[in-house]
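Page 37, top half.
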Amino acid sequence: MVIRNKPFAHLFYGAAVAGPVFKEIADKLYASNIASLPLYTAAPLKDSTLFLWSGWKQDFTKVFGKMNMPYHDSAAGSRWSYVQKEDNLVTARKLGTPRQSVPNVKGMGLKDAVYLLENMNLKVVAKGAGKVSQQSITAGTNIANGQTIYLELN
């Protein structure tokens, strides 16, 4: 609905012009017993808090400490780890980074992924923003010196 006024009308604010029209419509709807109609109730959604983060273990430890968030550390003695939800508890696991094969960098931020891969003499080409969602060389594949790996972030 459009309400048109004259260019120099005495009433020109929305509350003064559209307010009375809205009140009239609302009164008619209320009077027609629309309030007695059954309410729509949505079905409960599944828990959408599944997550997977990978990166420098000290960063996770620092964040969990600041947030007073309990977590289970299964990555003792590891510099790199991945964190995920397991049985309603956040769990840190060791991210295997053997020197001769490509690590799984899915879930890492770009800085961590580039640091880890370039220290393994891989050339990194990234596309997108956010966390790594795809990597061109499958984790566990043997590395050839100077090989290029393409990362897709999302």
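Page 37, bottom half:
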Amino acid sequence: MILPATVRNEERIDWIRCLPFFALHALALSAIFVGVSPVAAIAAVILYLVRMFAVTAFYHRYFSHRSYRVSRPVQFLMALFGTTAVQRGPIWWAAHHRHHHAHSDRESDAHSPAQRGFWWSHMGWFMTPAGFRTRTRLVGDWMRYPELRFVDRFDWIGPLLLGIGLYVAGEGMRGIGTSGIEMLVWGLGVSTVALYHATYTINSLAHRWGRRRYATKDDSRNNLVLALLTLGEGWHNNHHHYPSAARQGFFWWDVDLTYYALRILSVLGVVRDIRPVSERVRKRNLERRP
């Protein structure tokens, strides 16, 4: 099928706009020349974990699905911290994710591997003019907060502050075997690129690789490996069965580190009204095994 020129233009890769994305990959590759210290490696792992939590708990389970409640100041801090993952702003992220759930694995799904293949679902879709824009009609609940619109509009502030902080910290720790450039390369470059591609697997692999517990209308799968990499997001078939829940590992053997952390935050009074998974939901619409 030959697409109209307007559609082709919307789905072309915008190489200029993607330069920061490629620059971060180049920064990560420069680790070959910079080397690594234990301090820089530990910083990279810690920043991977805490920023993955920001994506899964804040961008996904809160801003996309509103599966628990927080105060307005905490909401703002969650949005700001989420930008340090360098996956754009919370409103943009939530809008695209809500669109995905509304059209999962159908032709209009922007990142279905069934429709456009692995690489498009993994990263090609957000590199286009269509992927860059925010579907504001899907996020009217967040558009009414001016502070969230500000964070979403200036989503580069968080990563910039993180990069500056890492460089300054590295220069201050030269006495224990690291440096500013090493901390920048590993704490921002390597950690962010690892975070990118682990997150993207939920689009590209979690609709192809794994087991189906529930008969959903898409091809979502549960995958323990992806769940461990993404702190619980790999229970993707569970999630598409009941997207509103804060818990994606529906059973005790479904390891969901994000949910465990949210429970701790609820004990501390930071979050409240965590939406559970009822026994009725767990038993509904189970896949029939041959």
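Margin note: Confidence is low (pLDDT under 50) at residues 1-7.
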